[in-house]
Specification:
Layout lengths: L2 E4 L9 E7 L6 E2 L4 E6 L4 E5 L4 E6 L6 E3 L3 E6 L6 H7 L1 H19 L10 E5 L9 E7 L6 E2 L4 E6 L4 E5 L4 E6 L6 E3 L3 E6 L6 H5 L8 H20 L14 H10 L17 H6 L4 H8 L21 H16 L2 E9 L1 H11 L8 H15 L5 E3 L4 E3 L5 E3 L1 E3 L2 E3 L2 E2 L7 H16 L13 E5 L18 E15 L2 E15 L5 H16 L7
Helix pairs in contact: 10-11, 10-12
Length: about 525
């Protein structure tokens, strides 16, 4: 019996997904676990695996097209099985396509241009790379008008809500037109570029706004042909020094070059061992390779010249950070609770832990673990304001603020209360490193229930933070200060650390926040209690 596969919800804010690439075409055999397609979510491209076995009978969303969550993505069943009733009965995918076709036709008529795009020309529009994205900014073009373009080549770098993403071409030909210049923004679905046969006049297409009258049937046929071309191209990819072949996708190859990763040392998880994007993102380099990555030049802002003012245009990330922090500050009534923690026992415990082989735990890791355990005892802190109700989260997911050259991102440790100190340490290092390389996936930056910001390593003694909504609290961690303290009635030299808890008063009352801090203090001052 045929199985309907719907567009998955791959993040908590995702309302629609875009198929960036199909790994199977109609008629292909599909096994459970095979990569069916690569789907663009809010902030990343993710591989989508099949849960069923059979033959791919129907594709509901073509490459480069988007569709709502839960609409028909594909149908898998027995070869030759009639699925027309499922397609018409499911309605979602087909009706969306029909509505899009009708809408597109109406727009072409209304524009009075009625331009039919030739078969040898492809119009590329500004992609919607997140659910809140209404416009995109081109950070850099990798191709110029007149350049040859192959399928999989990086056309441009596009700034989205929280990151700059490489944008691959799905077509081959010559770059005939660029619709958005570097450092300029354009609305989603407006003309980004046009690719076609060299010398083709595209002025009428530009004037008509890029509306296409090409049928879905032609698009599907073209997609199948291009899939065959791409499979052939992939088999002709770079070779190893020993003469063997290294099968790697163009995007993965570009990421490897940027990160300084030797592709010969990467194990591919794609079909036939092909190296794909996630293999490069999850690759852990050796100590020598790490130094190469860490020593890569970081973004340098405009130089300061005495007596001369300069300007740096805001990135999309900076604009979104400004918007969301302003909304949080002025919609959530903040108040702050501060406490000082004795770190003598924590320093001694960390020294013992790090004496074990292959173990290196930071003070921040201890704070994260203690916070997770304290959240389990004070569920009101692990809650969110939702208008007419308060949502009490069943999982403890802690977001850890990470500074990157152009702003701030908050990777999330899922189910932190079930993680050991060494697991927390490894995860924080991994995600912080990938955050700085813009390699975090969408689901790694969503779903937090509590956040932690640590500026102690910069010598900051204490500070307050703005709540990362929809969280109701954020913990600010200062540096460890050596100073005189009173212990057992005597003045001695001790080590202290200041913590500040910003709370949303709509959710967390003062006494609740204070009780949480007392529990947190007990765990940090007596790390052995975290083992109980």
């Amino acid at each position: 019996m045929a199985e309907i596969i719907t567009m998955p919800r791959l993040s908590d804010t995702m309302t629609e997904g875009k198929v960036s690439k199909w790994h199977k075409k109609v008629g292909d055999t599909v096994s459970e676990g095979d990569i069916l397609a690569e789907i663009e979510t809010d902030k990343a491209v993710q591989d989508f695996e099949s849960e069923f076995e059979g033959t791919l009978l129907y594709i509901g969303t073509n490459e480069g097209e988007g569709a709502p969550v839960d609409s028909i993505l594909a149908i898998v069943g027995k070869a030759g099985e009639d699925v027309s009733s499922l397609i018409s009965g499911g309605g979602s995918a087909e009706s969306v396509q029909n509505e899009n076709n009708e809408s597109s036709s109406e727009e072409v008529v209304e524009s009075s241009s009625n331009v039919e795009i030739p078969d040898n020309v492809e119009v590329i529009t500004m992609p919607r790379l997140s659910d809140t994205m209404t416009e995109g900014k081109v950070a850099k073009w990798h191709k110029q008008v007149g350049d040859s373009v192959n399928e999989g080549d990086i056309l441009a770098e596009i700034e989205t809500d929280k990151a700059v993403q490489d944008f691959e071409s799905e077509f081959e030909g010559t770059l005939l037109y660029i619709g958005t210049k570097e450092d300029e923004s354009a609305p989603v679905d407006s003309i980004l570029a046009i690719i076609g046969e060299a010398g083709t006049d595209v002025s009428a297409i530009v004037a008509g706004g890029g509306s296409s009258t090409v049928s879905n049937k032609e698009a599907k046929s073209e997609s199948v042909n291009k899939e065959e071309v791409k499979e052939t191209a992939q088999k002709q990819d770079s070779s190893t020094n020993s003469g063997g072949r290294v099968f790697i996708s163009p995007l993965a190859k570009k990421l490897a070059e940027d990160k300084g990763i030797d592709i010969n040392s990467v194990k591919g998880s794609g079909e036939n061992g092909r190296i794909i994007k996630k293999d490069i993102e999850s690759y852990k380099p050796s100590a020598v390779e790490s130094k190469v990555v860490e020593n890569k030049p970081v973004q340098v802002l405009a130089p300061i010249i005495q007596g001369v003012d300069s300007e740096t245009p805001n990135s999309q990330m900076r604009n979104i950070i400004a918007k969301r922090l302003a909304e949080s500050k002025f919609t959530a009534p903040h108040y702050y609770l501060m406490i000082e923690v004795n770190m003598d026992n924590a320093i001694a415990s960390r020294k013992l832990i790090n004496a074990m082989p292959d173990t290196k735990v930071s003070f921040n890791d201890l704070v994260i673990k203690a916070s997770a355990m304290a959240l389990r005892k004070h569920s009101q802190i692990n809650s969110s304001w939702a208008g007419d109700k308060i949502v009490h989260h069943g999982n403890v997911n802690i977001g850890v603020a990470v500074a990157i050259p152009d702003g701030l991102v908050v990777p999330v440790l899922k189910n932190t209360d079930f993680m050991s100190l060494t697991e927390i340490s490894a995860s924080v290092k991994d995600m912080a490193g990938r955050a700085k390389g813009k390699g975090l996936k969408a689901d790694e930056m969503s779903g937090s229930t509590f956040s932690i910001s640590n500026l102690g390593m910069f010598g900051i003694e204490s500070f307050t933070s703005i709540i990362n909504q929809p969280n109701s609290c954020i913990l600010s961690v200062g540096g460890i200060i050596e100073k005189p303290i009173v212990k057992d009635g005597q003045i001695v030299v001790g080590n202290t650390m200041k913590l500040s808890l910003a709370c949303d008063h709509r959710v967390v009352d003062g006494a609740t926040g204070a009780q949480f801090l007392q529990t947190l203090k007990n765990y940090i001052e007596n790390p052995v209690n975290m083992l109980a």
